[in-house]
Amino acid sequence: MNTDNNPVLWAKNLDVYQKQARVLSGVDFSLRKGEFVYLIGKTGSGKSSLLRTLYADIPVKAGEANVAGYDLASLSKKEIPYLRRKLGVVFQDFQLLTDRTVYENLAFVLRATDWKNKSDIGFRIREVLEMVGMETKAHKMPYQLSGGEQQRLSIARALLNSPEVILADEPTGNLDPDTSEEIMRLLVKISQAGCAVLVATHDFLIITKYPSHILVCENGTIRHEQL
Question: What is the pTM of this model?
Answer without folding.
Answer: 0.90
